[in-house]
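ok trying again, last paste got cut off:
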Amino acid sequence: MPYFPYSKQSKKKKHRGAITAKMVANLLSVAGVDHIITMDLHASQMQGFFNKPVDNLYAEPSIAKWIQDSVPEYANSVVVSKNAGGAKRVTSLADRLKIDFALIHSDRTRGSNQARCSPTIPGTPENDASGSSNNNLNSNNLFYLTSNTTTDHNTTERRSSDNGDDDEFSSAASITGEAPSMDDETVSVITLVGDVAGKVAFIVDDMIDKADSFITAAEHLMKKCHAKRVYVIATHGILSNDSINEIERCKSIYQLVITNTFPLSSEKRSQSSKIVVIDISATLAEAIRRTHNGESISYLFHTAI
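nice, full thing came through this time. structure:
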């Protein structure tokens, strides 16, 4: 099972909500499955949903090999996580490639008073009377996203079920150059912790479902942080709704790199020239062979086949 379905529903998103991933695990167990081989679970704790052995393989070796073979200037590049939840994945890939990593942090505030102020780093002095600041945070690494705070049941449902805690900021269409002054708006201040100026940036995540947050991150890196080029890399390319066309229209994304854990129809692939698919079938086949013969599969955790 290269892609475990409903893996984002691995915890409650609302009161009395279903943990669908656990239900899928129960269905597989009842059906007689006695061993599960999958790749890049959304949450590694999901292995505990089963009372059978689970082997969670990683696409990282194959992705690292593709970067080394296909991006000549990868030594002068940065691996970027679009939220704090993906920091562990990003640092692991950065260590393998021996390059730097960066993190995008999104902070939501409400009202005009908060919106007008840039985030303050703890331990740094406040602005003086002349308006100058000793804060060494580069203002180019900040920009604001605005959205109306009028909330209905549909909005609440969409926020809880869309991408869960993965997408900390939404559509790039709401990017503005300065903070709004209206009290009835929510302001998201996006900060890049790291430096991508003049470097190739790899935005890495375990899956790409809707493209909004990836597009927003890519545009921030290109327009505000002056990255040389941006690649979006994900293990599972779900690409629901109009995501492929949105990525194709986004000038800030150079290429979208995914694996073939999730089937992508030829019709969808033809919609964009930016899509690159990494074949990981050999890794899964070798895992099946080693499991069948009673051999260790730990070799596959750090080596591309």
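cool. The radius of gyration is 21 Å. Residues 111-137, 145-164, 170-184 have pLDDT under 50 and may be disordered.
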